[in-house]
Amino acid sequence: MSLTDHHIDDTGLIPYLEHRANIDDNARVAALVRQQSDPEKGWPRLIKNLETYRRLEKKVVTVSGVDIAVTLNETRAPSVTAKTFENAKSGRKPQCFLCHLDSEQRGLLTLDNRYIILVNPGITIPGDLTIASVQHDPQIVRDSFGDMLILSRKLTDYSIFFNGAMAGASSPHFHFQAGLKSTLIAERQIERLLNKNPKPAHLVTIFKNQSSQICFVDHFLRAMYLLISRDDGEIKRFFEIFYKVLQNVDQAIRNIPNIPDFGSIITSLEINEYEPRMNLMLKFDPSSGQYLLAIFPKIFNRPQAYFRRGDEQILVGMAIKESLGNLISCRRSDYQKLYQQPHLIEEIYRDTSITRKMVDDLNAQLMAAFSL
Ligand SMILES: [Zn+2]
Predict the structure, then answer these.
(1) 183-193, pLDDT tens digit by residue?
(2) Domains of the chain with bracketed CATH
(3) Residue 174 Cα, ligand 1 centroid: separation in angstroms?
(4) What's the CA gap between 144 and 305, in Å, rounded?
């Protein structure tokens, strides 16, 4: 069964549509989530995980003035423990879970049948999606950022996410993710930041013209950049410039204990690394016609605490959901350590985000690139 055979058309979605008039992609996706969650006709793995998800525990912890949601979420165990990009020495490749879907999995083909929208069984917020390329292309966004823009304009109820190969992706098969807009804690913090500029985080403007703005967000536990634009061509060009500058700055990722040097071979992609390490969130606001892209430049997805032994170890994988302030643990001992010891949260963000020196280099190089 090929990926395209898992497509469910509007006829199949009819029983799950809320309204039958004006069916758009947002309505189709909502219906797909209902179909896959249907205890009678849905996808058993998702239904089981929705049950487990009810036991989710969550606490909001203030770390150096920034609120972080710490969760105990067993449904995310496969992605938190995934070693897709880590087992450089083991020869045997595991079967690709995006090429080999479960028989009950259904999805929506989109963008000229080049992608299939699927429900993500690892639930951070119910309704989470995986948007996979129908071909087993490598997890590199360089030539697919334009697709990300189109997806954000189609799925206006959603924020579109991308995890770089060495920055938290759990599959080497090209995919985006999506989550209902503004459901993660840092998405709401970003909105407040752009409206009122609350402390301790604050915006450092790198570039601004009539239609666009580029900012670095300082004092936010992790490095974050915001690219905001009402112009399609401009946001694309800004991303390309940012990509090249970060690629340059990432050369500094060398000789850090437990962290692969930037540019090493990525075994699961069978290439030498060239894409800068980052997590992305993109959303499009149809009322203002504005894109908001958040870029989190990363050192790696694993903090040093992950590599400690015994009681000292904390099993976490830092990807886009974590960058957006939702720290996911799947063992109770880790969950307790995190909410009882906020300094550990601070350390985890510091370890996985680019260093202060890299931030300073990146800002200086961006200012030079954008002043041209
Ligand atoms: Zn695949």
Answers:
(1) 999 999 999 99
(2) 3-370 (3.30.428.70)
(3) 8
(4) 33
Tell me the residue length of the chain.
Answer: 372
Angle at 270 between CA 268 and CA 276, to 5 degrees: 80
Compute, in angstroms, the gap from residue 148 CA to the centroid of ligand 1: 19
| CA dihedral over 355, 139, 226, 319, signed as positive or negative | negative
Span 136-156, pLDDT tens digits: 999 999 999 999 999 999 999
User: What distance in Å separates the CA atoms of residue 10 and residue 230, rounded to the nearest whole number?
Assistant: 32
CA distance 211 to 228: 8
SS3 10: helix
State the residue for tokens 């709401």: 188
Please report, as a single letter, which amino acid is at residue 31: A
The pairing of strands 326-329 and 66-72 is parallel
Spacing, Cα 341 to ligand 1 middle (Å): 39
State pLDDT tens for residues 158-172: 999 999 999 999 999
Q: Separation of 267 CA from ligand 1 center, angstroms?
A: 15
Closest CA to 319 of 122, 191, 170: 170
